[in-house]
Specification:
- This protein is 33% helix and 15% strand.
- By secondary structure, it is an alpha/beta fold.
- The strands form six sheets. It has a four-stranded mixed beta sheet with strand order 8-12-15-16, with helices on one face.
- β1 and β2 form a beta hairpin.
- α2 packs across α3 and α4 runs antiparallel to α5.
- The two termini are 23 Å apart.
Length: 419
Amino acid sequence: TIVADGRTYDFHILPSGLVNPKCLNLIGSGCVVHIPSFFKELEDLRKKGLDTTDRIHLSDRAHIVFDLHLLIDGLQEGELTEAAEQEQLNNGQVVVAKKSTGGAIGTTKKGIGPAYSAKHARSGVRIHQIFNKDEFDKRLRVLARGAQKRYGSAIEGYDVEEEIARFDTYREQLRPFVVDAVPLMASAQKSNTNILVEGANALMLDIDYGTYPFVTSSATGTGGAISGLGLSPFKIKHIIGVVKAYTTRVGGGPFPSEALNDDGDALQRIGHEYGVTTGRRRRCGWLDLVLLAHSHAINHYTTLNLTKLDILDHFDTIRVAVAYTPSHPSSSSSTSPSSSHPQNAPIEGFPADLHVLDTCDVVYEELDGWKGEGKVAGVKRWEDLPGAAKRYVEFIEGRVGVMVGFFGRGFGREYLVFR
């Protein structure tokens, strides 16, 4: 969600750089794209007064998300939920799937997972193949036959010939947007053009380093940006870690610092925490420095952008998660590395094992709020921050080892304060 010049823009597929009339935008080779949504989002931006002419390109190596993938996404989500419930029934448990370790992944059901599955199974369809109708039609029919064998009557409402016919319409509409992104990016880097890389998902949704399987289906960190865009790692000058002053999550998955109380409700309400794509209520909790340190260890941030600091104006006391300690139930049969930890000794790093995350104890430090001292919301300089707000920022810096170079004091772009 971008607020610029008094208008609010929601970006899903398109880069948010489109709000800047001088910015050329590219959807890279590592992305998957639902073509009808691409055109719909463009039209929505144009209705809001944004001229996107000749400013958005789409890599010919990106993969296509078909309506078939959207249908499969919903079926797979249902299978995961059903399997988790059956496992609990087999164990004699009450069927209440935990958000952290069982049940639905919480997918947006936009076909992302199935599209990446097809890509890595080498049965996907890339953007450039749209322009060879015979090849495109053949590959989509093969995909549809495979899905029919796998899901049977569950996808009987899908008509592959209907989707092929829609792409006959998209073919020429799409052509002006499609480029070979490799020479485009090579030229931009050779000429030292300023390049800002934007990712849709944070590291905890990374396919390798996130809270698997409650993740997306691609590499969302620095490495994914380098491979997905053909960036030279030697050209990267800044890696900005964007982190809220508290923690949120949409959908299922582990969330050790989740505040299942009035504090969590207040963060959600004051912060207007709803998913842009799904509209779902975000789960909210206190800032988790174990998680942030893990993210930094993978992405190697040079500075942090601490957004929504103003939301904490409303709290007398602010809690910060600083460590996890393993739970040692007497009946535990866990064979994970953390099961051998001494009682109360902090777990090193961010555990890969979701059961460890689900059962660990979170160690908090409590900091004074600045509710009675002043507000971040009206501040325009670092020097003018309430003292307790400065101490909160400095506490984060000291624990993570990265300077907070920016902080947010409101929803609009103009409310970003440079330190």
